[in-house]
Amino acid sequence: MIIPFDIILILFIFICAIAAITVKDLLSAVMILGAYSFFMCLLWTQMAAVDVAFTEASVSASIGTVLLIGAVYKTKRRSKD
Amino acid sequence: MNDFVLGHYNYWMFIGLMMIGFYAMMAKKNLIKKIIGMNIFQSAIILFYISTSAKRGGVSVPILEHAAGGHGSHGVDVAHYANPLPHVLMLTAIVVMVATLGVAVAVTLLIYKRYKTIEEDEILMKIKEGSSAPKELVDVRSQKDSIKLRTNIEYRTRNVEL
Amino acid sequence: MFLQHPVLIVIIPLIAAVITPVLGLWKKVLCYYWVVFVLALTTLASIDTLFAVLRDGTIHYQLGGWPAPFGIELVIDHLNGMMLVLITGISFLVSIYSYRTVESELPGKIDFFYSIFLLQVTGFLGIVITGDLFNLYVFLEIAALAGYALIAIGEDGAPWACFRYIVMGTIGASFYLLGVGYIYISTGSLNMADVHILLQDLQGSKVMTAAVAFIITGLAVKMALFPLHLWLPDAYTKAPSASSALIAPLMTKISLYVMIRILFGVFGTSWSIGMIPLTEILAWAGVIAIFGGAIMALAQTDFKRLLCYVVVAEVGYIVGGMGLANEPGMKGAILHILNDAVMTVGLFTVAGIIMHRAKSHKLSDLKDLFPKMPLTMTALVIIGLSIIGVPPTCGFFSKWYLIQGAVQAGQWAFVVALLFSSLVSVILFFRIFEIGYGFKSEDHAHSHDSGSATAIQEAPLSMLLPTMAIAIAILIIGFYNQTIVSNLINLAVPKL
């Protein structure tokens, strides 16, 4: 495990997680969640878990994001908090 | 202290992420934010499992170049490979995560059709004041009627042109 | 063919669930007959397995031929066998009962409803039959997801209740997964029997304490132990009658079974009772749950919601019985799992019949129902007497064992709680009987009663027969409880 790379990824993952729940525009929040999933994939590839990484990329980062974008499209785009 | 924080940084990380997700599930009022929090919560637990399978010192991906075993050939030296069992368990957990996400999104759409809002406090207010009858049948039917009206008008104009 | 029975019990409903919508394309009624047929087969397989266990001892079935610590193992012993017969029997009766209510409450969605119904039964059976910790999580999530779908299609407030259930249920299952992760990284194995052996070297480990804490909290959310029960009343009240009749008796009892299996089967008694004073915590949790459930039940004006709080109180009995940590207490707890599942399914089927005929499940709308639906109300009387704990019905015997165990362990608070809840049940059910017989004249005269009263008649036969069967089963379990206890439950109690 390359330590500096790890720490940068961890920092990005935390920033994405906190941003995803703070941003008021729901479409942006869903996209930041997609970015969070992709950063998780990178972290797992770095930990030598390549099979989990591409499963997460193809299932959660792709289909999960599509499902949530569908939800935001059908409901409101702006949240109160 | 140094070893406690820096030596176990994967545990600190997954706990931090889990608590961010948990906070979002409990404290946020928007239903989509709650679903996002649920996603972060579950992926933090998946991160925990995978981080326990990784080893220091640059181990390789658990794929064997040549098939091992049979006829007393050299065995596999497991110290070179990352532990593959948590990977397999987490493949299932990732699929469960997305399935739960799908069901939660479907239920959110049902809630939106009924109450026309996805903020928790507004929904509770509407439940408390005993809101009006469910409107979704009326909406769909009126939409279908308006589409039919449009096609009827198109047919009539086309006949006139011919 | 016989040797494959353990895995057939899980596979038959799973494959049938996939075939059901295909059959629904042809004729919708065919789904109903198909579901009844499949569940009848599964019930026969599970009864056969139970007799095999009674004859030969514990059955170990290795999936795919992989030997035990490397592969997933299905273990059926006496506790499992009883739970399997219970689950398949209840789902068979509810599937016979369900056709009329599904037709009236969910028109046009019969095939999808039955498909998810079968998936739910698969999830329940898989939780009970497996001997592997992670496999249990997978089946727990299958059962939970099917349950979310079955509850969300109910009446007016159902999607919101279901969303709250999704959030709390996901937290519960994820905490269970986290606890299993801690067990895995300390012992290196996921097989329950293997972990039990490996844990003997890890006494006093903080990681294991954390693992037990996470698993117990996760299961407490799923079993609706008192402070974490908030999802249950809304979810089971607003659900369709057939889904609440299936899920309400089984989900909480299965989570209780998992807790018994993990606390006494995986962690062992020297751990649970010695290292952590877990059993005292559980006994007090049971007392609080009984008081909380009983007092909240007194305040309800809706019949189905009242039954949900009765379920919460019953969970308190079983958790308290586990917390007593002596033999009569455990016998009472396991017998009460059996009894309470049968009583709860009876209560919810009666509630569904009332909903089907009177189109409402408020207490005030039960007025004058007894003369119009005599057989259904007789069943309700028998089930009510069983919940109160009147002798020839089964509820009396499990309460007897629980009180015996509590006196033996010196937990006087639990004895007081049990007697208090019997008194509260008397008040609840006699109030229902009073409203039903029309003794009490309400101030607000229901003018709409005269119109709908002429339409209320006895329940249709497909709904009436399972309810009568459940009431008769309560009496039979009561009369034959000595046989059941000595042949089955004495052997199911974990070694204490």
* Cα Rg of chain C: 22 Å
Mean of all residue-level pLDDT scores of chain A = 91
Assembly state of the chains shown: heterotrimer
Number of strands of chain C: 2
* Integer average pLDDT of chain C: 89
Strand count, sense and barrel status of the largest sheet of chain A are: none
Give the spatial strand order of the biggest sheet of chain C: 1-2
Short description:
Chain A is an all-alpha fold and 81 residues long. Chain A has helices at residues 3-22, 26-46, 50-74. Classes of the chains: A mainly alpha (81), B mainly alpha (162), C mainly alpha (496).
Describe this structure in words.
The complex is a heterotrimer of chains A (81), B (162) and C (496). Chain A is mainly alpha-helical and 81 residues long. Chain A has three helices and no strands. Chain B folds into two domains: 1-56 and 81-131, Orthogonal Bundle (Helix Hairpins); 133-162. Chain B contains six helices and no strands. In chain B, helix 2 runs antiparallel to helix 3 (31-53) and helix 3 (31-53) packs antiparallel against helix 4. With 162 residues, chain B is mainly alpha-helical. The radius of gyration of chain B is 27 Å and the shape is elongated. Chain C is an all-alpha fold and 496 residues long. Chain C has a domain at 277-442 and 453-496. Chain C has helices at 5-26, 28-56, 78-105, 110-129, 133-152, 158-187, 192-198, 206-223, 232-238, 241-266, 269-275, 278-298, 303-324, 327-358, 369-372, 374-388, 394-409, 412-437, 449-453, 461-479, 481-492, and strands spanning 59-62, 73-76. Chain C has a two-stranded antiparallel sheet with strand order 1-2. The radius of gyration of chain C is 22 Å and the shape is globular. Chains A and B meet through helix 1, helix 2 and helix 3 of A and helix 2, helix 3 and helix 4 of B.
List keywords for this structure.
A: 81 residues; mainly alpha; 3 helices; 0% strand; B: 162 residues; Helix Hairpins; elongated; disordered C terminus
Produce the secondary structure layout.
The complex is a heterotrimer of chains A (81), B (162) and C (496).
Chain A: H1 3-22, H2 26-46, H3 50-74
Helix pairs in contact in A: 1-2, 2-3
Chain B: H1 2-7, H2 9-27, H3 31-53, H4 85-115, H5 120-128, H6 136-161
Helix pairs in contact in B: 2-3, 3-4
Chain C: H1 5-26, H2 28-56, E1 59-62, E2 73-76, H3 78-105, H4 110-129, H5 133-152, H6 158-187, H7 192-198, H8 206-223, H9 232-238, H10 241-266, H11 269-275, H12 278-298, H13 303-324, H14 327-358, H15 369-372, H16 374-388, H17 394-409, H18 412-437, H19 449-453, H20 461-479, H21 481-492
Antiparallel strand pairs in C: 1-2
